[in-house]
Amino acid sequence: GRGLKSHAYIHSVQFSHHVFLNLHTLKFYCLPDNYEIIDSSLEDITYVLKPTFTKQQIANLDKQAKLSRAYDGTTYLPGIVGLNNIKANDYANAVLQALSNVPPLRNYFLEEDNYKSIKRPPGDIMFLLVQRFGELMRKLWNPRNFKAHVSPHEMLQAVVLCSKKNFQITKQGDGVDFLSWFLNALHSALGGTKKKKKSEW
Asked: Which residues form the USP domain (predicted)?
């Protein structure tokens, strides 16, 4: 918020930090004066937060192995970037990295239009996994990153919530168990059906 009692407003007055970004609208504001800042030099920031890909860009991902230069000067290959280890989430990072390089899965999640209109029951939190995995996928494949690594924090928060804390950030987990749960959860959240086991009579 930008109101007089909002954290952003108070912070702008106390610390003389004046440029703020609304993460929902991706618009920049100057506080405490409360006016929108329109400046094309800020587009790099919004692109890093919400990278987008055209169908043509997605189709060409495997045809070109072009290094990108991050704003910090390091070079990286989009799709082959590090994931921050927050506490003990390396087991999940390894699975997420591997899945991000499965072309059909990657291509589906790079284009948000593929899943953003899927209808979900009221109160269903599992679709959060789909949204966060798509966001992470687009950040991993972003050719205009600020650094050659990405934070999976929002993705991992969704995992903790949706797994009812069976998979944690602070406690080591089993990668195979996580992979199995994660793929089944994604399938279900995308409207997949649960198959009943056949009786062996």
From this structure: 81-201
**Could you give the CA distance from residue 165 to residue 117 in angstroms, rounded to a whole number?**
28
Structural domain of residue 125, as residue ranges?
Answer: 48-191
pLDDT digit string, tens, across residues 143-157: 988 888 899 999 999
Q: Do 155 and 119 share a structural domain?
A: yes
pTM: 0.81
Please indicate, yes or no, if residue 89 is contained in any of the structural domains: yes
Nearest to 115, CA basis, from 137, 130, 129, 104 = 130
Q: How far apart are CA 102 and CA 179, in angstroms?
A: 13
Cα R_g (the chain), whole angstroms: 20
158 neighbors 132 (Cβ within 8 angstroms): yes
DSSP secondary structure of 10-29: HHHHHH---EEEETTTTEEE
Number of domains forming the structure of the chain: 2
Give CA–CA dist 1/41, Å, rounded.
23
